[in-house]
Amino acid sequence: MPHNFFNAEEQKQIIAAIKSAEQNTSGEIRLHIDKYCKESVLDRATYWFEKLNMHRTKLRNGVLFYLATNDKKIAILGDAGINQKVPSDFWDEIKNQILADFKNGSFADGICKGIIASGEQLKTHFPYKSDDVNELTDDISFGKK
């Protein structure tokens, strides 16, 4: 199980980053961790995006950070609503920033920085409204295999 890739303190740090990033937006951010990804990382991330109901947010503004720890793969998927608003290379820029931190061994910090950067874009395009509801859990999800 990939549960032990981030220790308990790092998991709390990541969940706090998600909560902070979502504080000023109606957007939803999730992190999913698998141990292995034997297919295209984008295909696997898309599978989890749907399985986690990320595509069912009211404004289609969900963002999934997908990580396959043992295979060292990462993908960031934004739903249609946010993808229409951000530059086409936006997710690659965030991914590259995360990978730079990963190369220095700063895994939790890298993910947190990426989450916060995503939240800034979500805040710009999907600001928080008084009737906003947290549509998806902020918990990290983990693959079963």
SSE arrangement:
Elements: H1 8-22, E1 28-34, H2 41-51, E2 62-68, E3 73-78, H3 80-83, H4 90-103, H5 107-125, E4 141-142
Parallel strand pairs: 1-2, 1-4
Antiparallel strand pairs: 2-3
Helix pairs in contact: 1-5, 4-5
Describe, in plain words, how this protein is organized in 3D.
Strands 3-2-1-4 form a 4-stranded mixed β-sheet, with helices on both faces. It has a single domain, classed as Diaminopimelate Epimerase, Chain A, domain 1. Helix 1 runs parallel beside helix 5 (about 105-125) and helix 4 packs antiparallel against helix 5. The protein has 5 helices and 4 strands; from the N terminus they run αβαββαααβ. Strand 2 (about 60-70) and strand 3 (about 75-80) form a beta hairpin. The longest helix has 19 residues, at about 105-125. The mean pLDDT is about 90. The chain starts with 7 loop residues before the first helix and ends with a strand. The protein has about 140 residues and is an alpha/beta fold.
Short description:
This protein has one domain: Diaminopimelate Epimerase, Chain A, domain 1. Helix content is 43%, strand content 15%. It is built from five helices and four strands, in the order αβαββαααβ.
